[in-house]
Specification:
The complex is a heterodimer.
Chain A: E1 15-18, H1 29-34, H2 36-51, H3 59-80, H4 89-116, H5 118-123, H6 130-133, H7 136-156, H8 167-192, H9 196-209, H10 225-228, H11 234-245, H12 252-283
Helix pairs in contact in A: 2-7, 3-4, 4-7, 4-8, 4-9, 4-11, 8-11, 8-12, 11-12
Chain B: E1 6-20, H1 29-38, E2 46-60, E3 64-68, H2 75-82, E4 90-96, E5 99-102, H3 115-125, H4 130-144, H5 159-171, E6 177-181, H6 189-204, E7 208-212, H7 216-222, E8 225-230, E9 233-239, H8 240-250, H9 258-261, E10 266-267, E11 275-281, E12 290-292, E13 297-304, E14 312-320, E15 325-330, E16 341-348, E17 356-366, E18 369-383, E19 406-408, E20 416-418
Parallel strand pairs in B: 3-7, 3-8, 5-6, 6-7, 12-18
Antiparallel strand pairs in B: 1-2, 1-4, 8-9, 10-11, 11-13, 13-16, 14-15, 14-17, 17-18, 19-20
Helix pairs in contact in B: 3-4, 3-5, 4-5
Classes of the chains: A mainly alpha, B alpha/beta.
Chain lengths: ~280, ~425
């Protein structure tokens, strides 16, 4: 090793180049691939943390939306008497909450994932994008358990889904994509501005009333509908319920609108993430 | 100088941090918004502080390189840039091969998870494939010596076990280049030796190690080469022996740096819970950063404590430039009323230190731990002077100095007493 005077640098296929990065949307896909096991490692960590040291364990995953559905049943089903096209209101509410919970827990967890691991960011290098992405496995597991319970409800009430079931994965992916896109935006901003932690739960709480969770979008008065439908979360939540129970309507146009919105949210998330990522270790 | 076995080459590498003065940076989005609305065109006074400036060097395969320098010389920043934790502002570094970094052992350990689960999680964080970790699993467990507690959550581990396991994971990575920062300051002596041995093995396997350390003895026993940094600039790169020589020349107290002559109190503002400012002063109460051998050292600290605070102890300690603590001074056990706003003065009449550069650290101890820990902001120089009036000044070897009285009996002459 010696002092040098700025002559040629090493080069080759395995050479990692460290320099100030430019570009708005340059994602190092090969690097993400190299670290692919970390995604599952983060996933496993969350799953274990979630199901260990809780008294009821897996039951919570079902219990949370079920209690929500029970409250909805009392408020909307019995007092406000929402129309449900003959399907028991509990099923309507639970299927709405199934989709909503996927979005809301995804967004909440993604938004805090960077700040919660500040120590890790300051001390170790790995593709930071894996932190928000790493919550997906646990999210999907929760969703699957909730889905199995939904199946139980459908069998109990003799509800047979039709061809609409094909739309179920589409709606699920939109909700997941939306949660990730907005979650990554929130997570990046939270590194710099800690009050994002208070804004997100508030947003989630208010958003729930603007989504067809405890009711079908068909129950929304017609004159509000055009504005109501601007919310890109309406279509996937409504579609998810429709695909399972047949309650509500399916509109390909609305779903396409949501898909476009989701892609925009994800791109926005990536751009903001990319452009704040370089500062994470310095600011967090 | 680009030869085929160069594994790290760094050109013009620079890293700056922006420090905003006047107003504190907006910490919340609401604050940022209000400020923008209040005055959209105001731009805060910014200062660009360079932690690294135009650093160039090459490292060849199999070298164990020690990064040497004072506190704040940019050593840790260099390692952080090279291990990609933070981005450089300018310049470029190229690294051939897989990089592992041990910036701090145990980050990423999840207290609730068991030792076994943490090995896999930590390995993945450090970039290993699951299959690789599985292959190395027995080695890791063997090295850490925690096999009995593998299925116990690591929150129940002793701190020693924790560190051993964490080091074991990182040190058994299949990497070509390993960056190590300060990790060896943890654990007991036996384990430290084991770690050092492991790092030597890593090098014997033909891998490269870049090591930041304050401990010269460790550097000397481990490293083959050295990089000397000062204020973010590269002063020397070469064999370890040369580099240590350069370092010692740099900190030689004959040239007291200008910054140390024109000193000012360090104002911490509200950076710490209780310590507000600290300073080292001379006999006239003026801020200084130099003291003669055997001279009087006076340290002033102002504290902002709660009105009723019991059992607090203020500690001043002095580290030498190798990071060894060589002197600890504490407020007396009884009778020092550390309460409310107080100005502390600590005086040592005759400082028993050899000429050289030293670092003052402070801590406010309460109960079983430090409430405030102020590290290394004040560096001072002990300069050679014939304070003791024996014509020698400081002696040429040793680590401490003290005045001495001698009696020389000479049969031919009368007894002579020499002061």
């Amino acid at each position: 090793m010696t002092m040098v005077n700025g002559d040629t640098l090493i080069d080759g296929p395995d050479v990692v180049i460290i320099r100030p990065r430019k570009g708005w949307l340059a994602i190092d896909l090969p690097l993400l691939w190299k670290f692919r096991d970390l995604l599952m490692a983060f996933g496993w960590r969350d799953v274990r943390l979630r199901y260990r040291q809780t008294f009821l364990g897996v039951t919570w995953v079902v219990l949370q939306p079920l209690l929500g559905a029970a409250i909805f049943t009392i408020v909307f089903g019995m007092i406000a008497k929402m129309p449900t096209q003959g399907v028991p209101y509990l099923v309507v509410a639970y299927s709405g909450l199934l989709g909503w919970t996927l979005f809301s827990t995804g967004l909440s967890r993604a938004s805090t994932c960077l700040v919660a691991s500040a120590e890790l960011i300051r001390k170790v290098y790995f593709p930071r994008l894996l932190m928000p992405l790493g919550i997906i496995p646990c999210l999907l597991l929760d969703f699957a358990i909730g889905g199995i319970f939904m199946m139980g409800l459908m069998i109990y009430y003799h509800i047979v889904p039709g061809w609409g079931l094909l739309m179920f994965p589409v709606a699920t992916l939109i909700l997941l994509g939306m949660a990730m896109g907005l979650g990554i935006v929130a997570a990046s901003l939270a590194v710099r501005y800690r009050d994002i932690q208070y804004i997100v739960p508030l947003f989630v709480q208010l958003m729930m009333y603007a989504c067809p969770v405890g009711y079908s979008a068909a129950a929304v008065p017609a004159y509000i509908r055009p504005y109501y439908d601007l919310n890109p979360l309406v279509a996937p939540i409504e579609t998810l319920r429709w695909s399972l129970t047949g309650v509500g309507q399916f509109s390909l146009g609305s779903l396409a609108y949501s898909i476009v919105a989701t892609v925009i949210a994800m791109l926005l998330g990536l751009v903001i993430f990319r452009n704040t990522e370089r500062k994470f270790a310095d600011v967090i | 100088m680009s030869s085929r076995d160069t594994v790290v080459s760094v050109r013009g590498l620079s890293k700056s941090y922006i420090i905003e003065h006047k107003a504190r940076e907006a910490g919340t989005a609401a604050e940022a918004l209000f400020r923008f609305l209040a005055n959209p065109f105001r731009s805060p006074a910014r200062e660009e502080v360079w932690s690294l400036q135009d650093v160039d060097f090459d490292i060849r395969k199999g070298e164990i390189v020690g990064v040497i320098g004072r506190n704040g010389a940019g050593k840790s920043t260099l390692l952080k840039v090279l291990s990609r934790i933070t981005e450089p502002t300018r310049g470029e570094a190229r690294i051939a091969g897989r990089v592992g970094s041990l910036i701090e052992v145990g980050t990423g350990f999840q207290p609730e998870l068991t030792g076994r689960e943490n090995i896999f999680l930590n390995g993945a964080i450090l970039g290993m494939r699951k299959s690789e970790i599985a292959r190395r699993f027995d080695q890791i467990v063997d090295f850490s010596g925690v096999e009995k507690y593998l299925d116990t959550p690591v929150k129940r581990y002793s701190s020693g076990m924790y560190v051993r396991l964490a080091f074991a994971v990182a040190a058994h990575l299949d990497t070509d280049i390993l960056f190590v920062d300060e990790v060896l300051s943890v654990g007991d002596a036996e384990f430290q030796n084991k770690c050092l041995g492991r790092l030597s093995d890593v090098a014997d396997e033909g891998r490269t190690v870049v090591f930041v350390g304050h401990n010269m003895a460790t550097l000397e026993s481990l490293c083959t080469h050295g990089i000397l940094l000062d204020k973010g600039r590269l002063l020397h790169a070469g064999s370890l022996k040369e580099t240590i020589g350069e370092y010692q020349r740099m900190i030689r107290p004959d040239h007291v740096p200008e910054a140390m002559v024109q000193a000012a109190p360090v104002d911490y503002g509200t950076r710490y819970e209780h310590v507000r400012s600290a300073d080292m002063v001379d006999a006239n109460g003026r801020s200084t950063r130099r003291v003669a051998v055997g001279g009087k050292l006076t340290v002033r600290v102002s504290l902002d404590l709660p009105p009723a605070m019991d059992g607090a102890v203020f500690v001043v300690w002095v580290d030498n430039s190798f990071g060894h603590c060589i002197l600890t001074l504490k407020t007396p056990k009884t009778g020092s009323r550390l309460q409310g706003r107080c100005e502390l003065t600590c005086e040592v009449d005759s400082i028993p230190l050899m000429p050289g550069e030293y670092i003052l650290n402070f801590g406010l101890w309460k109960g079983a731990g430090y409430v405030d820990l102020v590290d290394g902001d004040i560096t001072f120089v002990v300069y050679n002077n014939d304070t003791f009036g024996d014509g020698w000044g400081a002696h040429s070897t040793g680590v401490c100095v003290t005045p001495s009285r001698w009696q020389v009996r000479n049969r031919a002459l009368q007894n002579v007493e020499v002061a």
